[in-house]
Amino acid sequence: MQTIQVLLEKELLTAVDQAARRTKQNRSALIRDALRGHLHRLEVRAREEQDRQGYASQPAVEDESRFWEAQAEWPRTE
Asked: Cα dihedral angle (28, 29, 34, 37), rounded to 10 degrees?
């Protein structure tokens, strides 16, 4: 691991320390977990955007899914 310096507002640092105590982690572990989670969400968003662009560039053909819909067993609503 490497040591880095990060500047945080006092209120944010206080919130981090409170969360670290609640989760029984040290400050560094909490920040590492938060960064991993944020980076994962960014990656998911990027993939979703790539999918959106792909589907937008090749729109579905009108009757493309009718065969599969006919094969599907839909739950009954009562």
From this structure: 140
